[in-house]
Amino acid sequence: MKRVIFAGLAALTLVGAAQAQPYPSRPITIVVPFSAGGPTDAIARAISERMRVSLGQSVIIENVTGAGGSIGVGRAVRAAPDGYTLSLGHTGTHVVNGAIYPLQYDLLNDFEPVALIASNPMMVVTKNAIPAKNLRELIDWLKANSDKIATGTAGVGSASHFSGVYFQNLIKVPLNFVPYRGTGPALQDLVAGQIDMIVDQASNALTQVQAGKIRAYAITDAKRLAVAPDIPTADEAGLPGFHISLWSALWVPKGTPKDIIAKLNAAVVDALADPAVRQRLADVGLEIPPREQQTPQALGAYQKAEIEKWWPIIKAANIKPE
Ligand code: ASP
User: Fold this and answer.
1) Which atom of ligand 1 lies closest to the CA of 154?
2) Quick one: 175 and 193 in the same domain?
3) What is the 18 CA–ligand 1 centroid distance (Å)?
């Protein structure tokens, strides 16, 4: 009996010691659901380096790709709710995916929001060999050549895919989509001339546009990008109402303790206040939300509003899962 009590006490002490470990006491993993070298991966790298300073632990990036980002998000949501596995995602993974895939998780109920990070519009870009010089000419050219055009995406249900479907429905030209595991490799193939077009995130395409390697026709926002004021908005270029904001954010699995979420949120807020991080994001057209929109509550409310806005539109488009 004495031995049983003793063993019990020892076990309790061990549990107590584990619980007493201050968070974080080991490296943290951010699951990026798209390829390395793409825009989601770039955001993860930009903020994780600065989050490490605030958290005092290294922040590792794990690229788990496939099915429009739903494989990586599924991996993160099944992790222990202890603040050591974070889900980085965006409008595609944490809004669009839910209207297309029979997901094994609920986008609103199985996650706790941590913080909104940055947003940017989509950009219609083609390889340089396409003869069109502006959006109107591109639409005419697409109408005449629709069966020959390969449009790269990051997989069914990704932001680039959904934006491409939205574009094809507006211009009433069926597009042929080519899925990749992220728009990083899709963009490489566009630059190499292997595919013809991407409706890509501004932050992914901009550097190649500025280097003259691909051509930009319009961005999906009401205002032009501060870093690329020569690229017209879709409204100006002849496609009024083609507005999509792609925003990226961090979540953790449901059940993660509130004090851990607060620490993670504070580390993101610190990163977004850091001039070097701000510059790095701004240089590629990413806009950081104002401080009051960097709270977990603001992200939760925004995600819900985006689901309410987009799901009826996506469901009406009847997109089939991969
Ligand atoms: N931006 C991509 C998308 O279309 C994904 C990526 O980050 O590669 O959803």
Assistant:
1) 4
2) yes
3) 38
